[in-house]
Structures are given as C-alpha cells and as structure tokens.
Design a protein that fits this description.
This protein is mainly alpha-helical. It has 18 helices and no strands.
C-alpha cells in the first residue's frame, strides 16, 4: 500500500484511503446530528467537512494517503474545532477539573479539594496531571493557557519523538517521516475528538508510546525511565506500562539497563505523587482511589455499559466480581510477560494494548473514551514510519520475523 506522499502501486490503495476518509466523515456527521454535548457537536460539524474534503482530495490524487488529504483531515478534525472551542470556552468537564487542580496545587500544595461534594469537584487524576492547569493559574484565562492546548502539545511532541528513527537505522522506501505519521494519527477520529474537546488521556498515551519507543532503542534506560515515570504520574491507567516496558528493556538491553530504567521511572513517579499524597492523605485517597472505583462520596460519572460497570450496577456483589476478574486478567498478562516476553516494540505495545483493553472493560467505573489508550498503542507502531533494520544491523531474528517493530534492536551481547 502506498503511504503519505508516495505513489501507490495501483488504484486499490487509493480507494481504501477514500473509503477510510468517507467513513470518518460519516461518523463525524452522525455524531454532530445525534449528540447532546455541545463540544462534540462542534467537533462533528467541523470534522465532517474536513474528512469529506480529504476524501475528495484522495479521489483527485492518484496517490493513496496523500499529504493534502491528511492535512485537510487534520485541519477539519483538530485545528478548526479546537480553535472554535477554545475561543468560546466550551470544553468537557475534565478540562475545568485540570485547570482548577493547577490553581489548587500552587495555592495549597495539593490539587485535590479536601471535601468534595459534587462530581465536578472530584479530581481522579494523579498529581502530575495538575501541571497542565498551571499555565492558566499563572497567566489567567486565554487561548494559550487552555489546558487542551497543553494536552495536545504534549501528545504531539511525544509522538514526534516516538516516531523518530534511531541513528543508523535503514529507512523503508515507503516510510513516512515523523511529521506525516503524527499528522495521520492525529486525524483519526478517536484521537482528533479528544484533541479538540479535552483529551486528558492523550498526554498519557503519548508518554506511553514514547516510553516503549525509547525502551526498544536500548541506550542507558534513563530516557525510557523518565518517559514511563512521567506517564505513571498522570493516571493510574499508565501503570501497566512499567512491567511491559521493563520486560522489553530486559530483552533488548540487558539487566543493568532495566534496573536503571526501573529506578528512574519509580523515582520520577514517586517525586510527583508522594509529596502530594502526604500533604493531604485523606483527599488523595478520596479523589484518586475511591472515586475512580465508584466508592467515593459521589458516584463516578464514568458509567459506560461495559462488562465491569454492568456487573457492578446489576449483579449483587458485582463490584467484587469485577475487581476479581480484573485482578485475574492482570495476573494473566503478568504471567504472559514471564512466559513469552515481548522482544520488539510492536509486540510490547500489543501486549500492553490487550491488557489495558481488558482492564477498561472490567473496571466498575469506566468510559468508552478510555479505549483511546489501547487503540493508539495498537495502531501507532503499525503506521508507515518503520526502519528496516536496527541501529546495529539486522539480526537473525530480524530475518526470521520480517514484521519488526518500529524500534527493534539486535539482542544484547551482555548486561548493561
């Protein structure tokens, strides 16, 4: 299949590209006409026009996934609705929660209200997320201090560096550069919608992809540890990254590098979380532990009809059953890491995506929107940005497994 800016071998790939953009336009139009949420209606209207334009440009261009189509989709699905919503101040409630938490962090040292009484007063995120609200607290309301701008910027920067190839890696003839790859991903509806309306999960998944990419490159392990620790300081959903990323490092770089990365990741996350937890332990537990589990003073609004929520809501003892199923699934993923550790970034991302997908389906308080995490993890390392070999040259495993990860490296010759 042809990729961004590359001639397609036939019109078949271009027809697939047209069908993809047309389907995206249809989804956006349906959302715009059926949703009761104002920000989502704005996004659907703008995105439908952008995706339709991308489909038309694909028909007029013999190349599949042409750059002009991707940019039209990006403009219509991200840039225009984001500008409109930031100018009007219309956003999902999560944006206000993060911006308030930034002000609280500066004022009291804790981003959590001591006695929350309403749903909007709860902050279910770990302390690192409050940093995205600090610009507004410091400089006041404005387009550049909107938390969504910083969510999106963090996501795009992380994905850009995750897409960069290690020095010396050979480049496939069909591979797109980092900018084109990030643009293609950002135009995907599951990513474009939260970019515009309030994507608290996007910086999380961006750091997760960056952490895996850095782990696959080997190196000292410090950079991978920083990325993984930063992700773990934002949301609980990033914590499964640590065992998966560390197992990948153990396979690709050896024990010393893995221990160094683990120490770095735990230090970064502890530095962000522990001081805040000690500042007000009761508020920390109420907001970050009990509320996401549906056991806080106010019921969590995260109530999408997935198995965990349905069990908790309709079956006696359902919360316990859902928690037990979640623990069993986590144990199964952990055992799989020991029995068959992932040796490439793509394999690690797939394992993490499966684990997160199961967890999102089984936790009692859940939302369909959380599925952006496994979706991005599963899709990102399949986008057209793969080098054909590792920095140290192709290994025997590379020849045995031609579908290698974006940042596979040759097996280490020793620890460290």
């Amino acid at each position: 299949m042809g990729h961004l800016g590359r001639p397609a071998p036939s019109g078949r790939a271009a027809r697939w590209a047209w069908a993809y953009w047309a389907a995206c336009a249809g989804f956006a139009l349906v959302l715009a006409t059926t949703t009761a949420l104002g920000p989502h209606r704005v996004w659907g209207t703008c995105a439908a026009a952008g995706y339709a334009t991308a489909a038309v440009l694909t028909l007029r261009d013999a190349r599949s996934w042409n750059r002009s189509g991707a940019l039209a989709a990006l403009a219509g699905a991200v840039l225009v609705p984001l500008a409109v919503l930031v100018a009007s101040g219309d956003a999902q409630s999560e944006v206000g929660v993060v911006e308030r938490s930034g002000a609280l962090l500066l004022d009291s040292g804790s981003p959590y209200l001591p006695d929350p009484a309403r749903t909007v007063e709860y902050n279910p995120y770990l302390p690192g997320m409050a940093l995205f609200g600090v610009p507004r607290a410091l400089f006041g309301a404005g387009p550049l201090t909107d938390a969504r701008v910083w969510f999106g910027l963090a996501f795009l920067v992380c994905m850009f560096f995750a897409a960069r190839r290690p020095a010396g890696a050979a480049l496939k003839a069909s591979a797109a550069g980092p900018v084109s790859t990030v643009a293609l991903l950002s135009g995907f509806p599951a990513v474009a919608l939260p970019l515009a309306v309030g994507g608290v999960d996007l910086p999380v998944v961006g750091l997760m992809c960056l952490g895996l990419a850095l782990a696959g490159r080997g190196g000292s392990g410090v950079a991978a540890g920083v990325a993984m620790g930063a992700a773990a300081a934002l949301k609980w959903t990033a914590w499964p990254l640590l065992p998966v990323g560390l197992v990948l490092l153990a396979v690709t770089a050896g024990r010393r590098t893995t221990l160094r990365a683990a120490a770095t990741a735990l230090s970064v996350s502890a530095l962000a979380v522990i001081p805040v937890a000690l500042a007000d332990p009761h508020a920390f537990v109420e907001h970050v532990v009990l509320f996401p589990l549906g056991e806080g003073g106010v019921r969590s609004p995260a109530a999408s009809p997935l198995p965990g929520h349905l069990l908790a809501a309709h079956v006696p003892g359902g919360s316990t059953l859902a928690t037990a199923a979640l623990a069993t699934a986590a144990l199964g993923v952990a055992v799989s890491l020991l029995i068959r550790p992932p040796g490439t970034v793509r394999a690690a991302a797939d394992r993490l995506a499966v684990g997160l997908g199961i967890a999102i389906c089984l936790i009692p308080a859940t939302r369909f929107g959380y599925l952006v995490l496994p979706l991005v993890l599963a899709a990102w390392f399949r986008l057209p940005s793969s080098p054909t070999s590792s920095p140290t040259g192709p290994s025997r495993a590379d020849h045995a497994d031609p579908v290698r990860s974006v940042y596979s490296v040759a097996p280490p010759t020793g620890h460290g």
